[in-house]
Design brief:
The chain is of the alpha/beta class. It contains 14 helices and 8 strands. It has an 8-stranded parallel barrel, surrounded by 5 helices. Helix 12 crosses helix 14. The mean pLDDT is 91.
């Protein structure tokens, strides 16, 4: 798969003047809802109309999708609007029904891609299909597991393959619903540049007001497209109401998002430069998040020291940390001078945090 140049063919054949756009409601709720959204999106940059027919839910009793009935609604979408259609499949039955109803693109969700057994069953059911098949990253940040699922499909003769980056689950409380772990997506691109990679800002953010910024970051990192959940009345959506945008908001994104074209040497230079800068921005944000987490731990240490009347500065501990970090920094190509300056600044901020707590 690593040397295959055919994986991007399906996307290249579309000859789109912009990145691929997949949009539509999180869930197909009623035929009227599905058709209304589709007609509002038909004269836009949307190429594939998405709607969840079967919805995996953590607990029983929540809305789990309308089932096979919704596939007929998607057939009507294609007939009336000309939009290609797509939905999520999680087992052989889903695959058989989706193919029977001529769904154009099938994606495999994060809760399914985490299981090699389920991926193999789906690969067997899809063997030899010419439909487009996209694989979302597993819920945990495991690149070999993600790639392994895609490879199972490839070995079954499925050539119209791609991947969807939808972020990763975490117990830590962050501003994201699923942390993007951009570095993992970048590594994915570096290892498989011919495998189309789509970003799902809806599931990464969990908040509609953040969808634009994550979409722009994805485009800056040369993702091939976006999958954005879109609903005409998102506040009353039956699932994931908080992260869906309206069709009008989506169309405005198409106007505001900066999309680059690599048409000549200058454009290629600008694209690579912007991509590298976007990687630096991602890493800088991660640094700030990590430093924030570190200072929270420092606050807890300050509270412990206060309870035991212990001095803030512990020289032995500090010298041990500094020596270790200098050695590890050298292995990463960082100068001793830089590591000293950086950790002295971090240490001083940590002391400031602890003193504030002890003196409070």
């Amino acid at each position: 798969m690593e040397n295959s140049k055919e994986l991007r063919t399906w996307l290249d054949n579309m000859e789109l003047p912009h990145p691929l756009v997949i949009a539509g409601p999180c869930s197909a709720e009623t035929e009227e809802q599905v058709m209304k959204i589709a007609h509002e999106l038909k004269d836009s940059d949307v190429s594939y109309y998405r709607a969840g027919i079967w919805k995996p839910r953590t607990r029983p009793g929540n809305f789990e999708g309308v089932g096979a009935l919704g596939l007929k609604w998607l057939q009507r979408v294609k007939e009336e609007t000309g939009l290609k259609t797509c939905t999520e499949v999680a087992n052989k039955t889903h695959v058989d029904l989706a193919l029977e109803h001529d769904i154009d693109l099938l994606w495999i969700g994060a809760r399914t891609s985490v299981s090699p057994f389920m991926m193999q069953d789906i690969a067997d059911a899809l063997e030899g299909t010419d439909k487009v098949v996209l694989v979302k990253n597993p819920i945990n940040p495991d690149l070999p597991l993600w790639l392994g699922g895609i490879e199972r499909l490839y070995k079954k003769g499925i050539k119209n393959l791609g991947a969807i980056h939808r972020g990763f689950s975490t117990y830590a409380k962050t501003k994201y619903r699923n942390i993007p772990e951009w570095q993992l997506a970048i590594e994915f691109q570096n290892r498989f540049p011919d495998l189309p990679l789509i970003n799902d800002p809806s599931h990464i953010t969990g908040k509609r007001e953040m969808v634009f910024d994550v979409s722009q970051t994805a485009l800056d990192l040369n993702f091939d497209g976006l999958m954005i959940e879109t609903h005409h009345d998102p506040e009353n959506a039956w699932s994931d109401a908080r992260q869906q945008v309206t069709p009008d908001a989506l169309k405005q994104m198409f106007v505001d998002l900066k999309m680059r074209k690599e048409t000549d040497e200058e454009a290629e230079y600008n694209s690579k430069l912007a991509g590298n800068r976007a990687q630096i921005d991602v890493l800088d944000n991660q640094l700030i998040d990590l430093l924030g987490q570190r200072m929270k731990v420092a606050d807890e240490i300050g509270a412990l020291k206060k309870s035991k009347n212990v001095a803030v500065l512990q020289s032995n501990r500090w010298n041990a940390i500094l020596g270790k970090m200098i050695l590890e920094g050298e292995q990463k190509g960082l100068s001793e001078e830089f590591v000293l300056k950086m950790f002295k600044a971090i240490h001083q901020e940590s002391i400031n945090h602890q003193e504030k707590i002890i003196n409070s």
